[in-house]
Design a protein that fits this description.
This protein is of the alpha/beta class. The protein has helices at residues 3-12, 58-69, 81-91, 107-115, 136-143, 155-168, 174-193, and strands at 17-20, 34-37, 50-54, 74-78, 95-98, 125-129, 147-150. It has 2 domains: 1-44, no CATH class; 48-193, Rossmann fold.
Length: 198
């Protein structure tokens, strides 16, 4: 069992079991990944990955939920940055998908706020926005986003980025994590182009 999972299990004060998932190359869980079950008497089971989708457009939230749910991901939604910050605390997602242009608290302010919170700063963030001018990408990355996808969304690109983020988010060295993320996205793109998704 990886040390990070062992430590989380110890902190919970329970016995941990580890589940391994291997599935078809087109899914987010391609290759093995670990999930901890800290229930003392439960058998080995895998916890679903959790994604928080923060977007003021109900159609976009519904689309993200639909796409990721078919891949076995548990998706939670928030209507703006303010709602997203609150839900990030409650849910403790494995990944946040974030729009930039929202009322109340916009995406850049959300990113900067999350970076100041110890428990949340390690949650990876992928910006998904239609605001794709030349200055927007560096501003999002500087605010704390890990990647940037332009609308309209390409489903295979979304799945490759989400899958790669799941696989690499536990790498502690930022340079190594970025390198592995790029390689994993490339690998997942290649696999999805080899044949039909489902």
């Amino acid at each position: 069992m990886p040390p990070s999972l062992r430590n989380r299990a110890r902190q919970a004060g329970r016995t941990a079991s580890v589940g391994y998932v291997k599935s078809a190359p087109h899914t987010l869980a391609s290759g093995p990944f670990y999930a901890v079950n800290t229930t003392p008497t439960a058998g080995c089971r895998v916890n679903k990955k959790k994604v928080l989708a923060v977007d003021d457009d109900p159609g976009m939230r519904e689309l993200l939920q639909s796409i990721l749910a078919t891949e076995g991901v548990e998706v939670f939604t928030a209507i703006d940055g303010e709602d997203g910050i609150q839900k990030a605390f409650e849910i403790k997602p494995d990944l946040i998908l974030l729009d930039v242009g929202m009322p109340n608290v916009d995406g850049l302010t959300f990113c900067m706020a999350i970076q100041t919170i110890t428990d949340a700063r390690k949650i990876p963030i992928i910006i998904i926005t239609g605001q794709t001018n030349r200055d927007r990408v560096p501003a999002c990355l500087k605010a704390g986003a890990d990647d940037f996808l332009a609308k309209p969304l390409q489903i295979d690109e979304l799945l490759a980025c989400v899958g790669a983020m799941f696989k690499t988010s536990q790498i502690s060295d930022p340079v190594d994590r970025l390198h592995q993320y790029i390689l994993t996205v490339r690998d997942l793109r290649d696999r999805s182009s080899e044949g039909p998704r489902l």
